[in-house]
Write a structure and sequence with these properties.
By secondary structure, this protein is α/β, with parallel strands linked by helices. The chain contains four helices and nine strands; from the N terminus they run βββαβαββααβββ. β1 and β2 form a beta hairpin. The longest helix has 11 residues.
Amino acid sequence: IFCTNKLFLYIFVISQITMEISFNIDEIDNVARDVLAYGHSNNLLFYGAMGVGKTTLIKAIAKQLGVSDNISSPTFSLVNEYDGLRGKVCHYDFYRIKSLDEVLDLGLDEYLESDFYNLIEWPDKIVGLIPQSYIEIKLTQKDKERRIAHIRHIK
């Protein structure tokens, strides 16, 4: 549905409204709060180029969920689990997987069906295993200091 007037252009797509946030590193905690408030899914999928800030945003989200441990990228272990004040938080990094069998052996399907918060980097590597409902976070670099997060709830 498109509605226009002299000042505004509104684009509305039913059930897939995208929220866009431009931010710098000093604003990352606010972005984390916005991501958690955006949708009703505990599965968050992070897309973006290497070095765009996926892990940094995941650390801020884990902090918002009450994780007090030092958050690190699970590059070689595939998943790191943390206890937060709002439940278990699982951080996945599928950048280095060679086959979906690695992910199946991990038991990803059971994690995704749980009430854990599942924060997944490189979900494009596990296309056949992505849950039906999730929050998609696409990060891009606007310039040297700013990033843009495109956030939408996929149902």
